[in-house]
């Protein structure tokens, strides 16, 4: 419940030996983030957001996206959307209908083969082009098609000088393909489409956070921020161009809106303010890219299970507190063998004797836990999950403070937000502590800053941004558009005024 500590099994600690109680107390000190620390983190976050927008830049990239405005709900037409995730490739055809804020969608998912992630760039783009070709041939068999506008959700950090291009800054999500970082990904993608004669015009390259914000704003005018709390973490919000010094040389109207893809998983990679534990330090040092993505490594789904695993292994090896004594912990020694879903299952165990957690450990790790060990395991999962939710709110609060927003809606997507128990309520409590809301907000009213489940940002959001981009070109607003003539030609072949 908001205003109280997160659900806890402390009432069941009577039979827990003193050595385990001492360890639980130590873990509580390590993983608890009090309000004072949340505020310190948020204040530093605000400064780092501003630094990222400066000419000199900072640790947080704060990438300009050239998505320059919110939808008004009257956008119409049929668009393709391509979502390149870490596990799946999704192709959607989205029709924005004449009913305000309504849309129809058909979609297909394609498995992203693991070998592609470390293969060649040509193999990657060929596979993606093949999937698009299959989708169009299946859904538009024997049709004569003009070029279909495409919004491409490319959820990897990219520098965008134009909305229809993107220079990959670095691979994430397990990808490591040589010869792509530091280059514009669009020409190779378009070449693969052209080679197959696929009738598609890339209209907008977007990040999933930007798409989440725009898709949510399509049906909710109070939406101002889009967030992802999943395998990774990130946010996007709408800035005014006059507050982006690194774009000053372009002489844009200072009042023009510009969606900023923060890429704020990189926050505090200098290790100034985040309360890292010894386990966080191990994760960072042993990661493929140490001293990068410090914030993400403490709160994102990819790492929660690994933090949990490292703590249990440390306790097992601790002479002052041996858990799992006399048992084979070989399965527990495998890095990244536990995911956020494992912690979710522990927190969702409804039984006082934690029988589901007992079975989970026995089935997954071949470890038979005592009742006191189960109590420690449960409390550790709560601590790690609570810390992730509380820290995640610092990024949202920092954007609100930077912009001076007292109230707004935040659209959030991602597996941790949608599936992790108590994540929403713990995050809301942290926002309350940081933003200092009054105790009584009024009967029936939500929090001043409310994080809500998002619309389909990587699908509907991509389609909407493609529509908004074509609309801008038709109106002669070509800032951030690489080849307006080519897009204008695509516009002429495509009627934005009514659904196709």
UniProtKB/TrEMBL annotation:
Hexokinase N-terminal domain boundaries: 24-218
Q: What class of enzyme is it?
A: transferase
**CDD domains per the UniProt record, alphabetical:** ASKHA_NBD_HK1-2_fungi (cd24087)
Taken from the UniProt entry, a GO cellular component term is: mitochondrion
Lineage, top-rank taxon, reads Eukaryota
Domain Hexokinase C-terminal span(s) in chain numbering: 224-468
PROSITE patterns the UniProt entry points to: HEXOKINASE_1 (PS00378), HEXOKINASE_2 (PS51748)
Question: Known Gene3D superfamilies for this protein?
Answer: 1.10.287.1250, 3.30.420.40, 3.40.367.20
Q: In which pathway does it act?
A: Carbohydrate metabolism; hexose metabolism; Carbohydrate degradation; glycolysis; D-glyceraldehyde 3-phosphate and glycerone phosphate from D-glucose: step 1/4
- InterPro entries per the UniProt record, alphabetical: ATPase_NBD (IPR043129), Hexokinase (IPR001312), Hexokinase_BS (IPR019807), Hexokinase_C (IPR022673), Hexokinase_N (IPR022672)
- E.C. no: 2.7.1.-
Which processes are annotated in GO (biological process)?
glucose metabolic process; glycolytic process; intracellular glucose homeostasis; mannose metabolic process
**Record keywords:** ATP-binding, Glycolysis, Kinase, Nucleotide-binding, Transferase
**Reaction it catalyzes:** a D-hexose + ATP = a D-hexose 6-phosphate + ADP + H(+); D-fructose + ATP = D-fructose 6-phosphate + ADP + H(+)
Q: Which GO terms describe its molecular function?
A: ATP binding; D-glucose binding; fructokinase activity; glucokinase activity; mannokinase activity
The entry's family comment says: Belongs to the hexokinase family.
Task: Tell me the protein's name.
Answer: Phosphotransferase
- The record lists the organism as Lophiostoma macrostomum CBS 122681
């Amino acid at each position: 419940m908001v205003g109280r500590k997160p659900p806890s099994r402390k009432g069941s600690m009577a039979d827990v030996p003193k050595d385990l109680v001492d360890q639980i107390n130590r873990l509580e000190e390590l993983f608890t983030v009090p309000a004072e620390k949340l505020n310190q983190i948020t204040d530093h976050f605000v400064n780092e957001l501003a630094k990222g927008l400066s000419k000199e830049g900072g640790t947080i990239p704060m990438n300009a996206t050239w998505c320059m405005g919110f939808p008004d709900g009257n956008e119409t037409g049929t668009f393709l959307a391509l979502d390149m995730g870490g596990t799946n490739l999704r192709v959607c055809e989205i029709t924005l209908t004449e009913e305000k804020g309504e849309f129809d969608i058909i979609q297909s998912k394609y498995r992203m083969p693991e070998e592609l992630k470390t293969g060649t760039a040509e193999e990657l783009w060929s596979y993606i082009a093949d999937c698009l070709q299959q989708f169009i041939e299946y859904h538009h068999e024997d049709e004569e098609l003009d070029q279909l506008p495409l919004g491409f959700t490319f959820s990897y950090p990219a520098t965008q000088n134009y909305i229809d291009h993107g220079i990959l800054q670095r691979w994430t999500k397990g990808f490591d393909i040589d010869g792509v970082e530091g280059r514009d990904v669009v020409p190779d993608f378009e070449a693969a489409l052209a080679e197959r004669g696929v009738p598609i015009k890339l209209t907008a390259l977007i990040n999933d956070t930007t798409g989440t914000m725009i898709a949510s704003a399509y049906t909710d005018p109070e939406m101002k921020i889009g967030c992802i709390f999943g395998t990774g973490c990130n946010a996007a919000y709408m800035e005014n161009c006059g507050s982006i010094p690194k774009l000053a040389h372009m002489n844009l109207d200072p009042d023009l809106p510009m969606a900023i893809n923060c890429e704020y998983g990189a926050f505090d990679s200098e290790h100034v303010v985040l309360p890292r534990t010894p386990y966080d330090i191990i994760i960072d040092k042993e990661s493929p890219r140490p001293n990068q993505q410090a914030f993400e490594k403490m709160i994102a789904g990819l790492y929660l299970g690994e933090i949990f695993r490292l703590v249990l292994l440390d306790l097992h090896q601790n002479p002052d507190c041996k858990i799992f004594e006399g048992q084979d912990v070989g399965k527990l020694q495998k890095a990244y063998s536990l995911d956020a879903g494992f912690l979710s299952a522990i927190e969702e165990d409804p039984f006082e004797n934690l029988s589901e957690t007992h079975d989970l450990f026995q089935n997954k790790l071949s470890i038979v836990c005592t009742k006191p060990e189960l109590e420690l395991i449960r409390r550790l999962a709560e601590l790690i999950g609570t810390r992730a939710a509380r820290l995640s709110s610092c990024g949202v609060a920092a954007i609100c403070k930077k912009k001076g927003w007292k109230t707004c809606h935040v659209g959030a997507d991602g597996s941790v937000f949608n599936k992790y128990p108590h994540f929403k309520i713990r995050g809301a409590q942290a926002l309350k502590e940081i933003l200092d809301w009054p105790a009584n907000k009024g009967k029936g009213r939500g929090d001043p800053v409310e994080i809500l489940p998002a619309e389909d940002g990587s699908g509907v959001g991509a389609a909407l941004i493609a529509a908004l981009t074509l609309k801008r070109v038709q109106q002669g607003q070509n800032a951030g558009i690489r080849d307006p003539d080519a897009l204008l030609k695509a516009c002429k072949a495509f009627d934005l005024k009514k659904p196709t």
